[in-house]
Design goal:
With about 350 residues, this protein is of the alpha+beta class. The protein is about 25% helix and about 30% strand. The longest helix has 19 residues. Bound molecules: flavin-adenine dinucleotide.
């Protein structure tokens, strides 16, 4: 592989995004090391064109052709940095596949990520929206994030605090959006893990598996089984998981909503805040299973928008706007998109 990455022109991104939108990138390149990326930045190519850093393409919606450079991060490597009696510090390259990394950790007995099994995408993207599932967020296991400044080419380390993690949120989605390419993530994982079984579905799955005292491997297995049964496989049906975030409202608003809609699904967060289940709101507006051409709402999961084949990104986005409008009209609640619209 040459040090300077090859640049392809008019490159189809169809198999590089899980919505399977046939967007064409004017330029496309793959970088397999930090040196590669530094070299590329030094060439000035990223200053001449709009650019997009791409991981597994599982949290993106292309709404047209991309008129700049797509930089696909594919560096690999997992390194154990330190080990004590209780914990282990592991650094993983951004281009590692997330589920393969979780599986590696589970097989080694490193606990903390097992509830996040089978989330699509790469390690480098996990801090961006602080991925979460089944009662766990990745921020709880992240120690630091290493990223390159796209302008200067400087490699910087961000502590967990500097990442400013929130619900499906971090500094990389806000102040630093599009300014850094994440190269690696360092995790602190537990050697005597505390298992997280708060989510009812995990308990049910484990009891169906007749497991009373689960290991992290059992939890990973249970999570994979639940995800296989509930979520559409992007290989078979284009989607990017939950299209919207669960909205957070003030307690007073939540109380008013509960008076009018007694069956509303909500979770108290403390601090007078309440999280509402976006899927429930969408379902109440009649969108579950809706289809317009090849753009649709999944028949079992109202939060998941799907591409039945030849939908364009604009078709999906139009549907997303219609859903947002109807939820706002009925409940007065604004739904924010979780997926990155490009
Ligand atoms: C079926 C399905 C289920 C899902 N379930 C969940 C879930 O349970 N929980 C959850 O949190 N998410 C879930 N997701 C969303 C998605 O898997 C995650 O957000 C994942 O972290 C995205 O990773 P990616 O590598 O595919 O990112 P991409 O889609 O490639 O990129 C996402 C964003 O990050 C940027 N980016 C990517 N890599 C880098 C990098 N190295 N440096 C800087 N910026 C970068 C991109 O520019 C883009 O803005 C699901 C998606 C699908 C399809």
């Amino acid at each position: 592989m040459p040090l300077f990455p090859e640049i392809k022109e008019d490159f189809s991104l169809h198999s590089f995004n899980t919505f399977h939108i046939d967007s064409i990138a004017r330029y496309f390149t793959e970088v397999n090391s930090i040196e590669n990326l530094k070299e590329f930045i030094a060439s000035g190519k990223l200053n001449e064109n709009p650019f997009l850093v791409l991981g597994g393409g599982s949290n993106l919606l292309f709404t047209g052709n991309f008129k700049g450079i797509v930089v696909h991060i594919i560096n690999k490597g997992i390194e154990i940095i330190n080990r004590t009696d209780d914990s282990v510090i592991v650094k993983a390259a951004a281009g590692e596949n997330w589920h393969e990394f979780v599986t590696y950790c589970v097989n080694q007995g490193f606990g903390g990520l097992e509830n996040l099994s089978l989330i699509p995408g790469n390690v480098g993207s996990c801090p961006i929206q602080n991925i979460g599932a089944y009662g766990v967020e990745v921020k709880d296991s992240i120690l630091s994030v290493e990223a390159i400044d796209i302008q200067s080419g400087e490699l910087l380390a961000f502590s967990k605090e500097e990442c400013r993690f929130g619900y499906r949120d971090s500094i990389f989605k806000r102040d630093l959006k599009g300014k850094f390419a994440i190269c690696s993530v360092t995790f602190e994982l537990k050697l005597n893990p505390v298992v997280h079984l708060e989510y009812g579905a995990i308990k049910q799955e484990l009891s169906a598996m007749e497991i009373g005292n689960p290991t992290i491997a059992d939890i990973s297995k249970a999570v994979c089984a639940i995800r296989h049964s509930k979520l559409p496989d992007p290989k078979l049906l284009g989607n990017a998981g939950s299209f919207f975030k669960n909205p957070t409202v003030n307690q007073k608003i939540a109380e008013k909503l509960t008076e009018t809609f007694p069956r509303i699904v909500s979770y108290p967060l403390g601090n007078e805040k309440v999280k509402l289940a976006a899927g429930w709101l969408i379902e109440q507006c009649g969108w579950k299973g809706f289809r317009d051409g090849d753009a649709g709402v999944h028949e079992n999961q109202s939060l998941v928008l799907v591409n039945y084949g030849n939908a364009t990104g604009s078709n999906i986005l139009t549907l997303a706007h219609r859903i947002q409008n109807s939820v706002y009209e009925r409940f007065g609640v604004k739904l924010e998109m979780e997926v990155n619209v490009i």
